Amino acid sequence: MNRIQRISAMLVLAAAVLVVSLTYSIRAFADLARMARQPFNGPSLTLVLQPEPQNSPGTVHPADIQQAKRVLSSRLQGVLSGRPFQLTVEGDRFLVALPPSENMGYITSVLTSRGEVEFISGGELPPVGVSISPEMAAQYPVLFTGQDILQAQPPNSAGGQIFFRLGLAPDAARQLAEFTAAQTGRYLCMALDGQVLTCSRMYQMDGDTLEILPELSSGAILSLTDVGIFIDSGPLPWPLTATAP
Description:
The chain contains five helices and 13 strands. It has helices at residues 3-37, 62-80, 104-112, 170-182, 227-233, and strands spanning 45-51, 86-90, 93-98, 117-123, 142-145, 149-153, 164-168, 187-192, 195-200, 203-206, 209-212, 216-217, 240-243. It has three domains: 1-38; 45-113 and 235-243, Alpha-Beta Plaits (2-Layer Sandwich); 117-221, Gyrase A, domain 2. By secondary structure, it is of the alpha+beta class.
């Protein structure tokens, strides 16, 4: 085979390799496009949750683990609105796999908060953003708690309803009605795990239902908007910390 024939053979081989490469590239792009069109059907982001350090392994009881799993499952259903997730337990750790592109900061706050909801009297100077210590309890008395809330309805702008509506148990509704009658102009504040998230003087009672419009906010990730999630789930046995897997 002379030099010209060898060059011709090499050119033919190179052309064949190019055709094969292009064929596989086209197939690969087609596969990627097809995958992109397919709906997401499995979690991909993982969050590791476990009790805060003061809860040593010896003090974490199996019954508390099961309660925490039920609470976390309820909260995940609330924040994901039916989208898929996986929740598994490894010892005293909870592994949470979530869909991609989620607001992880918000979800982490919902999952790690113990979830103790209280509505307190904020007085004339609202303690927005303040953590209420036991020594401050007399200054900011609790009017009702999350256990007294039977139903939480967010505003419905389409229906002209701008207030949050909280259906209260009869005893709590009566106590709040007495407060509103005797303490005109006082702030009503919502606290989560002892931290005041929002305060308002724009509220009223409609039977056993509190109608309230948030007026002042601490700027925290969580707010009155999230109260329904914590009411539905109930509190955790202990607060959690979140780490990467």
